[in-house]
From TrEMBL:
Gene3D superfamilies: FAD/NAD(P)-binding domain
Full protein name: NAD(P)/FAD-dependent oxidoreductase
Recorded superkingdom: Bacteria
Keywords from the named record: FAD, Flavoprotein, Oxidoreductase
Example GO molecular function: N,N-dimethylaniline monooxygenase activity
Xref: SUPFAM superfamilies: FAD/NAD(P)-binding domain (SSF51905)
Family, as annotated: Belongs to the FAD-binding monooxygenase family.
InterPro entries cross-referenced by the UniProt entry: FAD-bind_Monooxygenase_sf, FAD/NAD-bd_sf, Flavin_mOase-like
Keyword Oxidoreductase found: yes
Signal peptide: none
Length: 637
């Protein structure tokens, strides 16, 4: 079955709905019924879902059946006109369903619910202005660097606002990380239905999208929105220099043939990603190894692992996806683990969405929107308290608070269950750092069952060195024909290797050193009209959603461009004091979170122990702060 956008029939026959109703997730169905009928009595306390099992209710089969039956009977009179159902939520219904879903009155959820419910036919956060309306004859132009999730998002908003723009992409296709990472079993570990732009939802075939499908999604998004014709493919921006006379940027570019060119633009939107410069540890003897050495993001599809001895270095999100595939055919796989990952039980990780449920999404108007809402709103609220340090607890590398300890116990139970009678394995797979100090990886049992295979060995020692024939760890030599690096990315090296020169020739990387920081992850003083998408401190651990953050960033950047247009300014430069206050806040808030407190290795922290990656506040803070540019925070010229 293909991914579909669905062709909704104007009317729906009750018998057709009844035939498929058992496939419906009751939380989505109940909220849909409340919306369509305006009868919120269907939001019964006893049918409130378990937040941990969403989109499933977590109720007994009997309770689910009773809920479905009532929904069917309440919906029946409305089915013949399902095409007329309102696509926005009435405020009182929105409040009722949000409180019901979250299990309590949650002011943040009520605010976020305004943007968490979206249908495919509307794009409420699209700019409601055009450059031509505000500043006819304006010479403002923009250039987006990168065509991943963030670059395409920014490009769409520019197009909607009628801002002339170009996109520069170093690869030969769109997709960014989803173009580059093609290792076996590569997929997202964010549920597909919320790993999409809010206004372009699909009827995904799997709960967690495979790399090829996500790539198709992004390509189709770019094609359908007329973005592809704006892209210069195979061109890399090597240097960006701000010209104070013209208040514009000169971008130096190099194409795949080595041709160098210059491109002038008023506004730069850097959307170059965080996870695209592979990190291969500089291990002693690495060059002496005689076999192939491959990083997960530079996969060699010609490699045949059949009957080979393979060394896998790293046990992060990528290795946990490719190593099980390699182990199916290799004669021996030795996995070198420096620190064990926390795993979250996710049985549907590799499963298809059942056909009946996909039928519901295609045929029952707005079922998909409520399905998405049921997972999206709780995700935006997240569980930051479980990642917050309680100085009185007292925090240790075991747990940093009672809530963090509760999370630890929940995750530990799963690992213990996975290890079964393998006590040796149990000791190896339970991490020695607090949960949420680094990414918690979704797992459906594949990882530990791979570790239990006869041809797999887990070595819990850091790699010491490499020689011609294999890997040394724990003073032992392990033979290998191939070494696979699941060692992640140079995430803290924001914007490198691009050189960026702002006011007075100031070099961005000299200014930053290794401490990349930008106001709201987007702007910084001395670099007028230079904005980042997915910039420093805009990632989330257990308290948000990446695509939501990208939509917020695009919103903020477009608001900045609107400010330029409205004031007739050529450039805007963030005030130093605004940046300094923000930067202090990020540092102090990060120190309160598990990832900022723990001493464990992670790409969330840079070499000096500063958190440059993660947003340390609740997601709603990001939403609020990016809602609109405050012109007073900038010097306009
Ligand atoms: P990663 O999470 O940074 O994991 C790198 C692994 O390599 C860790 O186990 C790390 O050990 C180990 N390592 C690094 N340097 C080492 C060294 N010198 N010696 C021994 N081991 C070393 O990288 P990743 O797995 O590629 O994932 C990066 C991020 O990409 C993920 O966190 C996620 O955000 C994203 N991603 C997502 C998905 C998905 O959605 N499913 C899939 C892949 C990647 P330590 O833990 O001890 O540092």
């Amino acid at each position: 079955m293909q991914i579909t956008t669905g062709t909704l029939a104007e009317t729906l026959n009750i018998e057709d709905l009844r035939a498929n109703i058992d496939s419906a997730q009751t939380p989505a169905l109940i909220m849909l019924t409340a919306h369509v009928t305006s009868d919120t009595s269907v939001l019964k306390d006893e049918w409130r879902p378990n937040l941990r099992t969403l989109p499933s209710s977590g109720l007994s089969p009997e309770a689910d059946a009773a809920a479905r039956e009532l929904c069917l009977s309440l919906l029946e009179p409305f089915l013949p006109q399902q095409h007329t159902w309102a696509e926005t939520l009435d405020d009182s219904v929105r409040i009722a369903i949000s409180n019901w879903l979250m299990g309590a009155v949650n002011e943040d959820a009520l605010t976020l619910s305004k943007v968490a419910f979206t249908s495919n036919t509307g794009d409420p956060r699209a700019p409601q202005w055009t450059l031509d309306d505000i500043a006819p004859g304006s010479e403002l132009t923009a250039t987006v660097i990168g065509t991943g999730f963030s670059g395409l998002m920014a490009a769409l908003r520019l197009k909607q606002a009628g801002v002339p723009f170009t996109i520069i992409e170093k690869n030969t296709g769109v997709g960014g990380t989803w173009w580059e990472n093609t290792y076996p079993s590569c997929r997202t570990d964010v549920r597909s239905h919320i790993y999409t732009y809010s206004f372009r939802q699909l009827n995904w075939e799997t709960h967690f999208g495979r790399q090829d499908r996500i790539h198709d999604y992004l390509h189709d998004f770019a094609a359908d929105n007329g973005l592809l014709e704006h892209v210069a493919f195979g061109v890399e921006v090597t240097k960006a220099v701000f010209n104070e006379d013209t208040q514009t940027w000169s971008l130096e570019t190099k194409d795949l043939n080595g041709n160098v060119a210059t491109h002038e633009t008023s506004i730069v939107i850097s959307a170059v990603g965080q996870l695209n410069r592979p990190s291969i540890p500089n291990l002693p003897g690495l060059d002496s190894f005689t076999g192939p050495k491959v990083h997960s993001a530079l996969w060699d599809h010609e490699l045949d692992f059949t009957g080979k001895k393979v060394a896998v270095i790293g046990t992060g999100a990528s290795a946990l996806q490719f190593a099980p595939e390699v182990a199916k055919v290799a004669s021996k796989v030795t996995i070198f683990q420096r620190s064990a990952p926390w795993l979250r039980k996710t049985p549907v990780l590799r499963q298809e969405v059942p056909a009946g449920e996909r039928w519901m999404m295609d045929h029952l108007n707005q079922y998909r929107a409520f399905y998405r809402f049921s997972i999206f709103l709780p995700r935006l609220i997240g569980n930051l308290p479980a990642a917050t340090v309680d100085p009185d607890y007292p925090p240790t590398e075991r747990a940093v608070s009672a809530a963090n300890d509760a999370l630890r116990q929940e995750l530990t139970e799963y690992l213990v269950e996975q290890a079964g009678d393998r006590e040796d394995l149990r000791e190896q797979i339970i991490p020695n750092y607090p949960p949420a100090a680094k990414r918690i990886i979704c797992d459906d049992g594949t990882w530990v069952s791979t570790l239990k295979r006869e041809n797999v060995q887990l070595v819990s020692h850091a790699v010491q060195k490499i020689d011609e024939t294999g890997v040394w760890a724990g003073d032992e030599h392990f033979d290998a024909d191939i070494i696979l690096f699941g060692t992640g990315f140079k995430a803290a090296d924001f914007l490198l290797p691009m050189k960026v020169e702002g006011l007075n020739g100031q070099d961005l990387h000299e200014k930053w050193g290794i401490d990349a920081s930008a106001y709201l992850g987007t702007a910084l003083p001395g670099f007028p009209n230079f904005f980042c998408m997915y910039g420093p401190n805009t990632n989330t651990v257990i308290h948000g959603n990446l695509v939501f953050f990208l939509e917020c960033q695009a919103n903020y950047i477009l608001s900045a461009i609107k400010t330029l247009a409205e004031t007739g300014s050529k450039s805007m430069n963030l005030r130093d004091d605004v940046f300094d206050a923000y930067d202090k806040l990020i540092v102090s808030e990060s120190a309160k979170r598990t990832w900022g407190w723990s001493k464990t290795h992670s790409w969330y922290m840079n070499a000096e122990g500063r958190s440059t990656i993660m947003w340390p506040l609740p997601a709603i803070e990001y939403y609020r702060r990016t809602a609109q540019v405050d012109p007073a925070e900038y010097e306009l010229s």
